[in-house]
Amino acid sequence: MFRMIAKIALAAILLTSPAWADGNMVKAEVVKVDKPAGKVTLKHGPIKNLDMDAMTMVFRVADPAMLDKLKVGQQIEFEADRVNGAITVVKVGKGH
Fold it and tell me: Which segments cross the bilayer (predicted)?
């Protein structure tokens, strides 16, 4: 019973804490924008939720409209996740 209560309390804290909201955001520089392919090349820091080191790589984007807001050389923050087996940018935030 105690373990169940502890798990529920921990879940409530994690879900309501704003500090956890951007826990997967990663700083990056836009290297290339490929609108026809729906992809962006980013030079990024470590992506903890994907256990990935810092590197430069090509990502798919969840929403092609994201590419309209990106320019080569721009500093951004982004969130990536696996979508249908492909590492995909699912959120783009303010630069750093």
Answer: none
What's the one-letter identity of residue 8? I
Return left, alpha or beta for 25; rule: phi > 0 is left, psi -120 to 50 is alpha, else beta. beta
Angle 4-48-57 (CA atoms, 0-180°, nearest 5)?
A: 150
Q: How far apart are the C-alpha atoms of 15 and 91, rounded to whole Å?
A: 18
The alpha carbons of the chain give a radius of gyration, in whole angstroms, of 16
What is the per-residue pLDDT across 15-46, written as a single tens digit (0 to 9) for each? 443 434 457 899 999 999 999 999 999 999 99
CATH number at residue 51: 2.40.50.320
| Burial (CB count within 10 angstroms: exposed 0-12, middle 13-18, buried 19+), residue 30 | buried
pTM: 0.75
Residue 57: give the domain boundaries: 23-93
